Amino acid sequence: MSSYLLFAIVQKGDGSRLMSVMRDAGASGGTICYAKGTATSSILSVLGLGESRKEVLMSLLDESVMEKVLSSAMNAKCKNGVAIIMDANIKESFDMQNDWEMIEVIVEKGYSEDVMAVARKAGASGGTVINAHGTASEEDAKFFGISIVPEKEILLIVASRDVSEKVMEAIRNLECLKKKGMGILFTIPVRNFVPLG
Length: 197
Fold this sequence. Notes:
The protein is built from 6 helices and 11 strands. By secondary structure, the protein is an alpha+beta fold.
């Protein structure tokens, strides 16, 4: 049986409500992360999104409940947002033709705005920034015996396949990311792209 990852980006406060609706439809659970949106004001007027606090809900779904959960998510009383379905079976997802991709960029804290600026120039309409941190290791710097773990930002951009190549190339050529260890860039094929609210 196939598995799918539902990835929903909604306004702050809507994540728990959406998870409750999805659980009633058969989802087993999920994880909510806090983030901020980066959509431009022109997009704000069209979609009602913008530089605001967001919640990112991730839920792993079985094929048997995926359609029902997605339908429930679309009818949930969320102000605004987007839901993305990705194939959790990596081999299968790369074999199929997808019109959309999620570009993920993990960078040191403070660089996501620079990355988003070049991504916009290359055709991206907006993205979502999740605050994160690295994982400690023996090599990490220590301060009074405590490991200092670098803070990170994860930038998520959903773009059509024809735009994503240009966006990735623009990010790849960003001077501040050419230093070793500054970040990583990868894409994930998106199965469905659904506006919420």
